[in-house]
Every structure is written in structure tokens, then in C-alpha cells.
Amino acid sequence: MRFLPLEKLINLHDGYSCTYKIDQHQLLLLQSDGQRYLIEAVCPHREHPLDLASIGGGEIQCAAHHYRFALDDGRLLQHTEEPCRGLRTWELVYEGNEVGVMIAAGPGNE
């Protein structure tokens, strides 16, 4: 596992969101209601980017088909078409004045 810094803590605020591509992972770092989350950056339903999603109340809603997911664990809360898997989530790691993620060293590992 290796630590990859994503953002300086001073830059984070409610409404913050930024996407990152790390190895094969597309990640979305966001802050909502004082909480920070790191989730996959595309909806597992039809791979629509989640950077345009509605966020609030601990949930994220995809702009394309209005699927809703819990931010804390990624579980699917509501679907409008066929069900899909939940969002992948990653635990944030804090080192000094930065927040980041621990990613497995080999390709294909989470």
C-alpha cells in the first residue's frame, strides 16, 4: 500500500469536489455537511460522471438517472431503472496538512 496525497486540508470546504485518476481508479473527493468522502467518480449504473451530481444529507444523486447512494458506505438507496451495485468508497488518510488515500501497489488491486 502507498499513500497518495490528494489535497491540502486548508482547501477543503462544504461544496468542494475534485476528481482524480490514480492507476485504474477514478476518484471523487468531496466535502458535504462538514464530512469528507472519497468515492468512485462515476455512477455504477451507466458510468455517468458524478462530479455533476446533487450532494446533501449524506447522499449523492446521479444527474443522469437519479440513482441515489449513501456517501458513507456507497450503498444504493434508490434506483429508477434496474438496480446496480453500490459505489466504491475509500477511507481517507490524513498526514500532516494533507488528506489522501492508501492505494495497493499492484495494478487491479483496491
TrEMBL record:
Keywords: 2Fe-2S, Iron, Iron-sulfur, Metal-binding. Residues 4-101 form the Rieske domain. One of its GO terms (molecular function) is 2 iron, 2 sulfur cluster binding. It comes from Halioglobus japonicus. Gene3D superfamilies: Rieske [2Fe-2S] iron-sulphur domain. CDD domains: Rieske. Signal peptide: none annotated. This is Rieske (2Fe-2S) protein.
